[in-house]
Amino acid sequence: MKKSRESGFLFCGLCGTMLILKTTKCAECPLCKTTRNAKDIIDKNIAYTVSAEDIRRELGISLFGEKAQEDAELPKIKKACEKCQHPELVYTTRQTRSADEGQTTYYTCPNCSHRFTEG
Ligand SMILES: [Zn+2]
Ligand SMILES: [Zn+2]
C-alpha cells in the first residue's frame, strides 16, 4: 500500500479533493471550501513551489522604493487639472485602433487623483 505522504499534495479530509494552497499558511478545498492550516500538511516540496514573491506578499514586506520608482518614470505634462487646478499632470497615451481617431491621452492628477481623457 502506497502512502502519498511524501508527494507534497494535500487532500481534503471531507471529500478527498486535492487542496489548493491559497497562501503560505492556508490550503483550501476547491469543492467544499474546507480550509486547512498549511502548517499541518505542508512539506518541503510545497514550501519550494511558493515563490519568494508570495512569501514577501504574505509577510507584508514591500519592495524598497518600488512605488517611488514607478512614479518617477511616469511622463508629466504642464497642464492644469480640471478639478483642482494642479499645474502638472501625469499622462499616458494610447493609439486607438482606427487611425482616423488618432490617439487618446489619459491624464491623472497626482494631487487629487482625478482622471480624465482627451483625444
Ligand atoms: Zn472538500
Ligand atoms: Zn487635481
From TrEMBL:
InterPro entries: Rpa12/Rpb9/Rpc10/TFS, Zn_ribbon_RPA12_C, Znf_TFIIS. SUPFAM superfamilies: Zinc beta-ribbon. Gene3D superfamilies: 2.20.25.10. This is DNA-directed RNA polymerase subunit. Residues 77-117 form the TFIIS-type domain. It comes from Camelina sativa (False flax). The gene is LOC104790217. It is found in: Nucleus, Nucleolus. GO terms for cellular component: DNA-directed RNA polymerase complex.
